[in-house]
Amino acid sequence: MTLMPLARAEREELRELLVTLSPEQWRAPSLCEGWSVQDVVAHLLGYEELGWGQLAQRFARGLLVVDRVNALRLRECSTRTPAELIELLDDHLTPTGLTAGMGGAIGLTDGMIHQQDIRRPLGLPRSIPADRLIPALRTALFAPTLLGVLRVRDVRLVATDIDWSFGRGPEVRGAGEAILMTVAGRRAAVGELSGPGQPQVARRVAA
User: Fold this and answer.
1) What is the mean pLDDT of residues 35-45?
2) What's the pLDDT at 62?
3) Could you give the domains of the chain?
4) How far apart are CA 158 and CA 147, in angstroms?
5) Is 46 within 8 Å of 74 (Cβ atoms)?
């Protein structure tokens, strides 16, 4: 099953957000430490133009460390203006290259997490459709670059707003979006969860 239409819908919604942002909001901090909103957008789109050979070169330069590879690519894209980034997004509303992997699951999940990285600090919440959120939760748990399942092992995650649960052990309850962001390692979301397993997950995310 392809998730590409859902990944495109996520990017279309991101575009609707970005065109409303003021210059101050583009410069505002995101949930990604040390990155502005503009940095997050540049990172999100930074791999769309790279072929597999170019991608391999970046990973070699970054010594296969994902954070280092991301930092290198962000420096390459850092001079792009908000208008140029929106234009790039227009050209890649359907993910290509790396983000097209796993039938679009990477583009959907990466796009959703990073859109929330932008929205949460700006105080711009949204309601994410369940048909997008559920596959993103699944991908975030097992994608090699996130391995979110390690943060939530030995607990049972229960979404209170959609029909989704995962795991065994003490329960951790909350909105599906807050669970997704916690699985992705975002500390800002952990406090929105409750249940006997929440302190255990909070310690892992903090570490």
Assistant:
1) 91
2) 46
3) 4-122 (no CATH), 131-206 (3.30.1050)
4) 19
5) yes
The full length of the chain comes to 207
Adjacency order of strands within the sheet including 156-159: 165-167, 156-159, 171-174
Record the tokens describing residue 166, joined without a space: 């995962």
Per the listing, tokens 């255990």 go with 200
Q: How far apart are CA 30 and CA 198, in angstroms?
A: 24
Q: Report if pTM > 0.70.
A: yes
DSSP 3-state of 4: helix
Helix (H, G, I), strand (E, B), or coil: what is residue 94? coil
Q: Which residues of 3-40 are buried (b: 16+ CB within 10 A; e: fewer)?
A: beebbbbbbebbeebbeebeeebbeeebbbeebbbbbb
Question: Using one digit for the tens of pLDDT, what is the confidence trace for 70-101?
Answer: 666 666 666 789 999 999 999 999 998 778 88
Which of these, 162, 159, 138, lies nearest to 148 by C-alpha position? 138
Q: Are 15 and 44 in contact (CB under 8 A)?
A: no
Question: Hey, CA dihedral for 105, 165, 150, 190, is it positive or negative?
Answer: positive
Rounded distance, CA 186 to CA 37, Å? Answer: 15
